[in-house]
Specification:
Largest sheet of chain A: none
Chains: A mainly alpha (about 270), B alpha/beta (about 425), C mainly alpha (about 325)
Shape of chain A: globular
Shape of chain B: globular
Order of helices and strands of chain B: HEHEHEHHEEEEHHHHHHEHEEHHHEHH
Structural class of chain B: alpha/beta
Distance between the termini of chain A: 27 Å
Strand content of chain A: under 5%
Largest interface: A-C, 107 and 103 residues
Radius of gyration of chain A: 23 Å
CATH topology of the largest domain in chain B: D-Maltodextrin-Binding Protein, domain 2
CATH superfamily of the largest domain in chain A: MetI-like
Radius of gyration of chain B: 22 Å
Oligomer: heterotrimer
Structural class of chain A: mainly alpha
Chain lengths: ~270, ~425, ~325
Amino acid sequence: MKKNSLFKHIVLVILSLIWLSPIYLLIVNAFADVSIWNANFDWHLKGWEPVANFKQAWKVADLAPGLKSNLFYGIVGSGLSVFFASLAAFSIVALNPKNKSLWFWVIYGVNLVPYQMLLLPLFESFASTGLYDTRWGLLLVYVGIAIPFAFFLSRNHMLSISREVVEASQLDGANKIQTYFKIFLPLSWSALGAAFLFQFTWIWNDLVFGMTLTTSAEVRPLMSTIATLVGQYQNIKMPIVLCATLIASLPTAFLYIVGQRLFVAGLKAGS
Amino acid sequence: MKLAKKKVAVMTAASLVLSSAVVVGAVSSANAATKVLNFYHDKNGWDTRFNEVSVGLKDGIGVTLKPSTYADTTLYQNTLNQAAKTGKGPDLLTWWSGYRMVDGAKGGMFADISDVWKDAIAKGDVSKDLQKQFMVGTKTYAIPNGVSFWPMFYNKKKFAEWGLTVPKTWAEFEAVCASIKAKGVSPLTASVDGAWPAFIWFEQLLISQDPQLYLDLTSNKIKYTDPKVVAVFDIWKKMIDKGWFTAGDTSFFGDEAVKLMNKGTMIPVGTWNNSAFSVTGGLVGGKDYDAFVIPNINPALTTQSIIVEAGAIGALAKGKNLATAKKALREWLKFPVQAIWADASGDGVPNPKVPVADPVIKSLSKYVATNKVNLIQRYWESGPVPLIEGGCVILSAFMLGTKTAKQATDELAALSDKEWAAWTTKYGK
Amino acid sequence: MSNIVKSSNRLRTKSSQPIWLKMKKDFSSKKRKEGITSYLFFLPAILAVLAVLLYPVGKTIYLSLTDSEGLLPPVFIGLRNYQNFVHDPVLKSTLINVLIWTVATLVLPVLIGLIIANIVSGVTGSAVYRMIFLLPYVLSGVAVGALWFNIFETEGLLNNFLRLAGMEGFVNSWLLYYPQNTLSMIIATTWASTGLVVVLFTVGIQNIPLQTVEAATIDGANSWQLFWKIIWPQLKYIRAVVIGTALANSLRTFDIVWVMTGGGPSRTSETLAVTMYRESFLLNRYGYGSAIAVFLMLLVVSVSVLSLRGGLKKEATL
């Protein structure tokens, strides 16, 4: 068994090094000394100025409003979508409503539409309903688009919860809401946690919906600002841009580190 | 330090004009509260200079700008198409002149500002020559957003080090390229990144061979398969085969431009990129780097030609604050705001009364004026949009070597026929 | 091992149906109330989804039947856009690229992710390893694009490395020519999205009852048998999510292609979504672009239906 474990570790270490090499590249170039920067990405260190570069990135990029907005969109948007999705999944799996298949495909359907198709008509409908350039309007779009995958994941995970559990709760006389909160929710923690993390990341990194449906600095999500740091008219040096993207990625990374405890159960979870 | 001093000098001159303007305008604008105009644009990093313009507009007519950057040009254009249809969007917007304005003008995106131009020309704030590219039919729909030349930027220090002088003939130009190549440096930048940069050398070589050829080609009077046009492609191919161009995925903006400049590569790009060298690169114009007008290939031509690009700023026709927006456009062309713009952009401006501060732009403008260099509109604005977009794809393929000159010109001719027919169907003429 | 597998299977066979059905009949008087409650549970999701989906899909289908360009009002032309699309010279290469991306995504991130999830689940420090594979997914698109562009560009790091390693012959313009540009982009996408697959499979693996695994190990099953006979079947539901999502996403591949190559050279690396975007957003031919969008949507829906139906065929009432 020990030899097996060592072999696994070796494979994982090799794969990890491959996976980390572009991240290493990112770090080395993000923290390069801007005064000797010559527009080439390199493997070797060219100065080490993390503090100075972060300071400059924060000054140049005006990230504060975007970070604030993103926290709102990410936490509320992903939270609501996962909650709604899990309710719907629970219903379809445990409550056996009529036309189950139809509802499944309607809810999952957004996931199958090329997202570009949504952009301009949403602008149109937002303009006429006054939702254009509002936090709630954009939040609604994020929730609507984030639900399908969370729904699919919750529903499939709930399917794997054994029948015995469902039947036992029914015989106990528990009503539906109790069944949902006391049985399904606790058993689906890891799936719902994963769904929350993924949809948070999607919302956090969204560029096109934010850019099309909002315009004010206070309402716009973060990536709309990050994307303005590059381009043919822009004169910011690459290390600073990379530092700005690092700042932008920190909250998501932090969330994943904290969320790791959802998956720490390994092969220990029972039913 | 230098930049600050320049700013003070320009502002002092401007403020003299301003103070008189304020006294005159004080009575009429006394009752107007500061109005905020939403301003959408797709120029990443230009918020700073637009905010400076806003200060000038505030001093002039009590109007401020609220700029909003759209990092993706394609999404920007489509968002504005929607805004034009719904009236929900900006009061002012940046756009492109020439053929790129036609859809917007005829489709009701831009408001007619012919009266703004009439007044500005009368007061000498803008030259009548510039008006045509902002006109559709008999009406004018936007003001110029800076006027940029497309010269050849070069490293003056490296030229001296390598014993090279600014070429005055095509033979000299080729010799310079060969010398730089021999030093192990790519002599010229060229790119297909995003497809559009492919038109840069296409238009440049055509106007150096014969500006009239270029004008006839882009106005559909001759075909892309015309032997004179194919001959230019052959010249281009020879340059490509000699390995004079940088790789197709090269970027020539921002700090990438500085890198190339420092190596000694010559860069044909719009003077709006000048700040990359002077500000980002910290290079001194006239000493470290400079710009020249590319010599003619055809020795029979008596004058040189240079590509000119003028961006547009327009007012949304369905905008809620149209009257104020038009006032702002008029004010934008006046000396004080134009002086701010010249200083903030380091580029040429439409108002001829504003002295050019940047040494490279100054000497270039002087050269162009003195030698009566022909000003030719960019390819990007010189034809129906699908033709230009599709054309750049074909030109990119030619540059990469996946299409021969004959294939490229044949396909361009076919595309041209198709798109001009579609254009005529849509708009007549 | 076989005993436990058999007993858990028994609970899923039809013999448990009568008990369930009997219970249903007992509660038949509450049926209508139950029905309404079950609808209420998925009402928020339905409302949110329809609010976002309804008008855009409807508008797109409408526009696909019109000649709509730029700011001009749409003119009804029936199915002409679809007919033109079938004869579009770029159709063949576009569909081939979609196929390439779909196969590559199913093989690379999904397979590699499964292998990694399996290996990671059993070792100490699994949280650290999972985080490493997830980091690329967390980065913003600007950073990922800049990194891989600098690796693959002609004057970039890969070519520099090849020159240093004496492999000049392999130096290439990895982004400029087809098909190597598609290969480069697939590598970049695999790097960014495998972490997602790892996490999803981990969720599935950790819900396998420990008793089942322990019993199998006691019975003398080796790693391969353990995986194939115990773990793989238990991953049925998660597998459906991973494959279903991978299919839906790979059929709609857009962002990486648009950013890295623009679909070039000469539109050779275009995928369906890129073609749609080009026609609608770049050329403002909204009618034609909408037809391509509808075509793409139908393709994704049919493939999804096929893959999900096939996967859950064995499932009785659910």
